[in-house]
Write a structure and sequence with these properties.
This protein is an alpha+beta fold. Helices cover 46% and strands 20% of the residues. The protein folds into three domains: 111 residues, Trigger factor ribosome-binding domain (Alpha-Beta Plaits, 2-Layer Sandwich), CATH 3.30.70.1050; 97 residues, Roll (Chitinase A, domain 3); 189 residues, Trigger factor, domain 2.
């Protein structure tokens, strides 16, 4: 194999590679010899079929297989010989016109390399961590919500009209253009007004109604409704209000606490306080993490692989376009050109991604199998009844596995750096923390 470097500019490398016909032929013969040992041909003992005959029978298919193996091997050898670290999969193009048996194979190999990343002095990074003590009022509010979620319902007095949060027992039958449709009929259905359980407009038309009233509820199904045969259609539901029940909030006591797995109300209160504090701690960590990434971004500067930046900018532009056009669920749209702002964000992400990867590698930070499995199980909960299938799919799909692993790895590297940096805690109010987070989000847009 002959290799000639044709371009070396920045992180870009290009090579012309020639794989000689003799090397290709030797590889084909070697494959024929290996297959010959187990090949049975009429008129010959097993393993004794003439190579010339086998070559006529299998030569073309083996040639294609051999070429692919030699190309893959040539690129792998090229990378290893020059101790290169490609940023992405090398771009390989066969340049031999009308390649046939007996020809040399010529290739063009192009790649972008990962840059040399400077070391960072973590001890030189000084950050302020905003800390919020969970207010007792929020703990009480959370406990009251638990009590409300455990509410019972008692019939209102005769003639009383329905109010928001009341539970109605209703019969209904829906029709579109006078024709009943599947799933549009039910009896003794318990509906809490204001719960948003039904499509917009349905529950509003049942406010102020009495038991025994019949109501024609007119609604329009949303354009993005799950059932395509109903999406955007106008419908009329003939509703009979059979009973109006008022909510009665459950009493906050030991008995209620036991329903939620706590020994008594004191233990339930402690659990709620811990959960509220965990939410603030999570927000505080998000803030200090963003400040850390800002500090690292200012401290380092190195050349970025252009293709990595372009791919990331395209991804950002595509994601933001879909956020602005939620009605478009597929990819049946024209090309979306990244703006200068998209490219700027992409450069930051690529730079920080490469830096964190380098820090993780140098300091032997890795994601354990236990951490990975736990994260997959967490995501699998979004698919009730299909958890096992989801877990097996992720474990068998390298791209999906990488998407689960990447944020865990990043958080572990961030925690490592935070452990080395100078962190000063500052107690702030809930509102101050929320304002600080909002300012960071606005700055990123």
């Amino acid at each position: 194999m002959q290799v000639t470097e044709t371009k070396s500019e920045g992180l870009r490398r290009e090579y012309a590679v020639v794989i000689g016909a003799a090397e290709i032929d030797a590889k084909v013969v070697d494959k024929l010899q290996n297959n010959r040992e187990t090949f049975a041909m009429k008129g010959f003992r097993k393993g004794k079929a003439p190579l010339a005959v086998m070559r006529k029978m299998f030569g073309k298919s083996l040639l294609g297989e051999t070429v692919q193996e030699l190309v893959d091997g040539a690129v792998k050898d090229l990378v290893a010989r020059h101790e290169m670290r490609p940023a992405m999969q090398p771009d390989v193009r066969i340049t031999t016109a009308n390649f046939q048996e007996g020809d040399d194979l010529t290739l063009e190999v192009a790649m972008e390399l990962l840059p040399e990343i400077p070391e960072v002095d973590y001890a030189d990074v000084a950050l302020e961590r905003l800390v919020v003590e969970a207010p007792e009022s929020e703990v009480e509010e959370a406990l009251n919500k638990i009590a409300e979620s455990s509410a019972t319902y008692a019939p209102r007095e005769e003639g009383a009209v329905s109010e928001t949060k009341d539970q109605l027992s209703i019969d209904f039958a829906g029709k579109i253009d006078g024709v009943a449709f599947e799933g549009g009929t039910a009896e003794d259905f318990p509906l809490v007004l204001g719960s948003g359980q039904f499509i917009p407009g349905f529950e509003d038309q049942l406010l102020g109604k009495k038991a025994g009233e019949e109501v024609a509820v007119k609604v329009t199904f949303p354009e993005n409704y799950g059932a395509q045969n109903l999406a955007g259609k106008e419908a009329v539901f003939d509703v009979v209000v059979k009973e109006v029940r008022a909510p009665a909030k459950a009493e906050l006591n030991d008995e209620l606490a036991k329903k939620f797995g706590a020994a008594d109300l004191a233990e339930l209160r402690a659990r709620v306080a811990e959960r509220v504090k965990a939410e603030y701690d999570s927000a505080s960590r998000a803030h200090v993490k963003r400040r850390l990434l800002d500090a690292l971004d200012e401290k380092v500067s190195f050349e970025l692989p252009p293709t990595m930046v372009r791919v990331e900018a395209d991804s950002i532009a595509h994601q933001l376009w879909h956020e602005e056009h939620p009605e478009e669920h597929g990819h049946n749209h024209g090309s979306i050109e990244p703006t200068d702002e998209h490219k700027k964000i992409a450069e930051r992400r690529v730079r920080l991604g490469l830096l964190l990867a380098q820090i993780g590698t140098v300091n032997q930070i890795a994601v354990s199998e236990q951490e990975l499995n736990q994260a997959i199980f967490q995501q699998a909960r979004q698919y009730p009844g299909q958890e096992r299938e989801f877990f097996q799919w992720v474990r068998g799909n390298q791209n999906a596995l990488n998407q689960v692993q990447a944020p865990i790895f990043e958080d572990k590297v961030v925690d490592f750096i935070l452990g080395k940096a100078k962190i000063t805690d500052k107690t702030v109010s809930k509102e101050e923390l929320e304002k600080a987070l909002a300012e960071l989000e606005e700055a990123e847009l």
